[in-house]
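hey so u asked for the seq, here:
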Amino acid sequence: MIVSFDRLPEQLVPGFKGGDGVVSVRAYDDDMGRILQLTVPVGGSIGPHTHTDNCEVMCIVSGTGLCHDDGTEVTLTPGMWHYCPQGHSHSVRNTGEEPLVIRAVLPKGR
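ran it, structure tokens below
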């Protein structure tokens, strides 16, 4: 199966997970999980949140940012992968000069 983000409807979410700005979300959902493309505007963020029922795997497609991962700050650049295990917390802020594009997979909790 191919997930084509440009064919999925765009949802504009102000304050995504309590963050700043309006994040563009394109998502595919089924019984096994969720596949997302998130576009975080310049200066925007995905607010801090804990993955209580699942984990998250994110790939940085374009742009740069900072991830706060359980209190540790990590610079995000294109091609990087970030893993947030179940029970852990993270947030992301776009610190670059262009939109930060992230593709993420969230399996359903067990």
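The mean pLDDT is 95. The beta strands are 11-14, 22-30, 33-40, 45-50, 56-62, 65-69, 72-76, 81-84, 89-94, 100-107.
lmk if thats what u needed
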